[in-house]
Amino acid sequence: MNIFEAVLLGAVEGFTEFLPVSSTGHLTILEKLLGYRIDDPAITAFTVIIQSGAVLATIIFLWKDIARVVPAFLAGLFNKAKRDNPDFRFGWAVLIGAIPIVIVALLFKDQIETTLRSLWFVAGALILWSGVMAFADHAATQIKHEDDVTWKDSLIIGLVQCMALIPGVSRSGATMSAGLLRDFDRVTVTKLSFFLSIPALLGASLLQGYQEAGNIADGVGWTNTLIATAVSFVVAYFSVNWLLKFVSRHSYSIFIWYRVALGVVLMGLLTFNVIEPK
User: Fold this and answer.
1) Residue 271: exposure state from Cβ atoms within 10 A (0-12, 13-18, ≥19)
2) What is the DSSP letter of 275?
C-alpha cells in the first residue's frame, strides 16, 4: 500500500462511517478495486483499525454530551437517588446497547473476516437493508426524543446493530432504522448511533491492532495504517457535523437510493466477472 491509497481509504472511511451507507462495504469495494485480497488478515485488520480515527472524531464532537452523561452515569451507579436523571438512563442505555455486538463479533469472528467479506454479501446487504431503512423512515412517528431513551430501547437497537457485522448493512443504517421503528426522532437516533459506535468500534480497533500487529507490519504497514487513521479522523469530524444538520431537515431517502444504486452496479460487475467477489 502506498501513501496515496492510505489517504484515499482513510478519507472514504471517515466520510462513510456515520452515514447509513456502510463504511466497511465501501472500503471492501475500494480495496478490491485497488487490487487487494479483501479477506487477507492484514487488509481486514486495516479496515477495522482505521475506524478508530472516526471514533476519536466522534468523541471530540460529542464531548459536551459525554462530559454530561458520564458523570451522571457514574453518580447514579453509587447513589440511587440520582438514577432518575435522564443522563444516567441514557448512559445506562448506551452501555447495554453496546454489549450485543461485542458478543456476536467475538463468537463469529472467523466468519465475519472471511465468508462475509465476499462482495456478493456486500451487494446483497446494500440492496436488502435499503428496504428496511425505507420502511423505517416511512413508518417512524418520531414522537420520542433523547430523554425518552430506555435500556429496553437501546438493547433492541444494540441487537439490530449486530446486523452491521455483515458488510453492506451499515452500523449506522441498522441503529438508525431500529431507532426510528422505536419511534425516536432522526436526530436522536443519529446521536444514539454515534454513542453506540464508541465502545463497539474502539474496542474492535484495539483488539485487531493487538491480535494482527504482525500482519499489519508485514502487509499494509503501520505507517500507512496510522496515516489512514489520521485522515479518517479529520474527515469524520466534518462528516458527523454535516450529518446531524442534514437529518434535522431531511429524511434518509437520498442514502437509500444511493445504496440501491451501488448494490445494483456491484452485482452487475460481479455477474459479468468484471471483478472477483474476493
Assistant:
1) exposed
2) S
Whether residue 264 contacts residue 125, with contact meaning beta carbons closer than 8 Å, is answered with no
| Selection from 129, 182, 137, 194 nearest residue 156 by Cα | 182
Cα gap 143→80, rounded to integer Å: 29
Residues with Cβ < 8 Å from 19, sequence gap 6 or more?
Answer: 170, 172, 239, 243, 255
Residue 40 makes CB contacts below 8 A (sequence gap 6+) with: 219
Contacts 24+ apart (CB under 8 A), 242-245: 243/18, 243/19, 243/190, 244/187, 244/190, 244/191
pLDDT in tens, the chain (278 residues): 899 999 999 999 999 988 889 888 899 999 999 999 888 888 988 999 999 999 999 999 889 989 999 999 899 888 888 888 888 888 888 888 888 888 888 788 788 777 788 899 999 999 999 999 999 988 888 898 888 888 888 889 889 988 888 888 988 889 989 999 999 998 888 888 888 888 888 888 888 888 888 888 888 999 999 999 999 999 999 998 888 888 778 788 899 999 999 999 999 999 998 888 88
Per the listing, cell 451522571 goes with 72
Q: Report d(CA 4, CA 272) in Å as an integer.
A: 29
CA distance 162 to 166: 8
**CB 78: neighbour CB atoms within 10 A?**
7
* Residue type, position 177, single letter: S
